[in-house]
């Protein structure tokens, strides 16, 4: 009982020791020790940080259906941690997003830990800004610029190939969700020269596909992702039970490649381009 009480009081004692009106905090180390709190932060930390900088990764980092750099990720702890655990690990920088673990992030900020919150982005400028911000925070700005150059070159090659050749394509997840205009998946489809069938359905953003529209106005091809995740959602069985059986060609892009709107999108773009290039020639349906 005493132990539980002492554990519960620790955050309060920490706040008392570091009040909000304290003197200015010392500068963060040039190469700060970092903890990643989200899957998308994992991708940036693993690409940009030195291994000895990494204290821990997100709870999803060891999930092979979600983690793009699963091999590298498995060499680091993957966990949900409270402020006490991060401080015990000597964390100086936490990278998260604007909606995950914000109470912990706010507490860490009050205790002198820098917090970088990654925004949701659906376009190339946003991806580049995110890489640049993460690289600067990690103390490797040139590494960030090199990654940006790499992403630009890979996306430019995909766009030049335009392997979609004007085909009407629909992205589909096992829960019936799709990606229309205003999403990074939609952007990558456009980059590949595809016509996004979600537009024909009058959809915008991340949306559900009306079953009637799929039957009455099917696309030329389907793009599947996340069908390997057995626990994708409560509705996930709809896509795996036989209720939905595609009658057009299906391309599978691993969900790991575009689960996040950052540098991994270049990998997804190339996977999609290569798969489109392997399809037999087909005229676009107008």
Automatic annotation (TrEMBL):
It holds the Pfam family Peripla_BP_2. Keywords: Signal. The keyword Zinc does not apply. Residues 1-22 form the signal peptide. It comes from the Bacteria. Residues 105-223 form the Fe/B12 periplasmic-binding domain. InterPro entries: ABC_Transporter_SBP, ABC_transptr_periplasmic_BD. The keyword Aminoacyl-tRNA synthetase does not apply. This is Iron complex transport system substrate-binding protein. The lineage of its organism: Bacteria, Pseudomonadati, Pseudomonadota, Alphaproteobacteria, Rhodospirillales.
